[in-house]
């Protein structure tokens, strides 16, 4: 996957639902091509196929569960995400916390289905534990900053730098990302200068009155 990257998490916002999810993803694709940067989108499960059918852009499921095909009504099957067009999945977002055992199992089932794994982590110590499971990415997201507009790369720069160094020492093949409060280009630039290979963004883009303008500002600072 091309690095660095921006992952746009649509969450369950109305602005990122249904046909609006397609419209937002089209903006992401447009900016991605214009600036030759990797912008990946993560819509709701119900919109995975809808978005993948319209666009040629990397798509991540918002989560998958460690289950095999079978009688699991209401659960998130990795195979279904893959066949709906996803190439990867988020795991353990702060709004959908999992135990370490569940994280390990989710990584395993995602890999078995050819999905890249981005595991979110609230702190450095937890990141060390996650790293043992060899996900493709670990995203450091300090929960108290999520949705505040106060970027982790600006508010906690030394912590982000330490996170990058710790993960690199444990397994240099794991790609470090950060999120929480990332709202504009300078936040993205700061994150890269601290050693991360990209960021996760949500409300700053999805709920913006002008998501294209916000994304362009971020994309310009991604290089």
Which labels suit this protein?
223 residues, alpha/beta, TIM Barrel, eight-stranded parallel β-sheet, 10 helices, 41% helix, 16% strand, globular
Description of the structure:
It contains ten helices and eight strands. Helix content is 41%, strand content 16%. The chain has 223 residues and is α/β, with parallel strands linked by helices. The protein has a single domain (5-220), classed as TIM Barrel (Alpha-Beta Barrel). The chain is globular, with a radius of gyration of 16 Å. It has an eight-stranded parallel β-sheet with strand order 2-1-8-7-6-5-4-3.
Describe this structure in a few short sentences.
The protein has 223 residues and is of the alpha/beta class. It is 41% helix and 16% strand.
Rg of Cα set? 16 Å
How helix-rich are the residues, as a percent range? 40-55%
Largest sheet descriptor = 8 strands, parallel
Q: In order across it, which strands form the biggest sheet?
A: 2-1-8-7-6-5-4-3
Order of H and E elements: EHEHEHEHEHEHHEHEHH
Per-chain topology:
Layout: E1 5-9, H1 19-35, E2 38-42, H2 48-54, E3 60-61, H3 78-83, E4 88-91, H4 100-112, E5 116-121, H5 124-131, E6 137-141, H6 152-155, H7 157-170, E7 175-179, H8 185-193, E8 198-201, H9 203-206, H10 211-220
Parallel strand pairs: 1-2, 1-8, 3-4, 4-5, 5-6, 6-7, 7-8
Helix pairs in contact: 1-10, 5-7, 8-10
């Amino acid at each position: 996957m091309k690095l660095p990257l921006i992952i746009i998490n649509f969450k369950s916002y109305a602005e990122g639902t249904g046909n609006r999810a397609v419209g937002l993803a089209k903006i992401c694709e447009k900016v991605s091509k214009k600036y030759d940067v990797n912008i990946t989108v993560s819509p709701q499960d119900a919109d995975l196929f809808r978005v993948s059918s319209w666009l040629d852009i990397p798509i991540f499921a918002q989560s998958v569960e460690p289950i095999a095909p079978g009688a699991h009504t209401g659960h998130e099957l990795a195979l279904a995400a893959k066949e709906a067009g996803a190439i990867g999945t988020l795991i353990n977002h702060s709004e959908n916390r999992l135990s370490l055992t569940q994280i390990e199992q989710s990584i395993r089932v995602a890999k078995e289905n050819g999905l890249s794994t981005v595991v979110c982590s609230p702190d450095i110590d937890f990141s060390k534990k996650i790293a043992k499971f060899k996900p493709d990415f670990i995203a450091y997201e300090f929960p108290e900053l999520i949705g505040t507009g106060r970027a982790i790369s600006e508010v906690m720069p030394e912590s982000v730098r330490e996170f990058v160094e710790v993960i690199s020492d444990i397994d240099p093949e794991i790609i470090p990302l950060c999120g929480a409060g990332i709202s504009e280009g300078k936040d993205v630039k700061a994150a890269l200068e601290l050693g991360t290979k990209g960021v996760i963004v949500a409300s700053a883009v999805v709920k913006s009155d002008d998501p294209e303008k916000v994304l362009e500002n971020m994309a310009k600072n991604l290089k």
